[in-house]
Design goal:
By secondary structure, the protein is of the alpha+beta class. The chain has one domain: HIT family, subunit A. About 15% of the residues lie in helices and about 20% in strands. The relative contact order is 0.22. The chain starts with a helix and ends in a 9-residue tail after the last strand. The longest helix has 12 residues. The structure holds guanosine-5'-monophosphate (5GP) and zinc ion. Guanosine-5'-monophosphate (5GP) binds next to strand 2.
Length: about 110
């Protein structure tokens, strides 16, 4: 298994984990683009948003429920953005579904 986010999920690669449970891990992005830049991933390997189906979509709801529950602990009170890049043209570099959680500065819209 060569997927770096699977390795982060199973602890093979160290990361700065801020939350984990039996289904997901939330950890700090290695190259933060904002004062708070976290990545929320399912432990299960799903390649990208285009691989979400009725079989595996509950994990997406779970991730968003946890973001909402943890918003104070994660310092998201001032507002935050959740984004997933799907495919190379959209800037996806790691082919394991992940949601960027960005906060702590004014975020421009539309993103570049
Ligand atoms: P993408 O470009 O696929 O949307 O986002 C991948 C993100 O993963 C990037 O923001 C990148 O900084 C982050 N990243 C890549 N490798 C690692 C790693 O080994 N550890 C951590 N914490 N973040 C990583
Ligand atoms: Zn993976």
């Amino acid at each position: 298994m060569e997927c770096i986010f699977c390795k982060i999920a199973n602890g093979e690669i160290k990361s700065d984990v801020v939350f984990k449970d039996e289904k997901i891990v939330i950890f700090k992005d290695l190259n933060p683009e904002a004062p708070t830049h976290l990545l929320a991933i399912p432990k299960e390997h799903i390649e990208s948003a285009e691989k979400i189906t009725s079989i595996n979509s509950a994990i997406v709801a779970h991730i968003f429920e946890k973001i909402s529950e943890l918003k104070n602990d994660l310092k998201l009170q001032e507002g935050f953005r959740v984004v997933t890049n799907c495919g190379e043209a959209a800037g996806q570099t790691v082919k394991h579904l992940h949601f960027h959680i960005l906060s702590g500065r004014k975020l421009d819209w539309p993103p570049g």
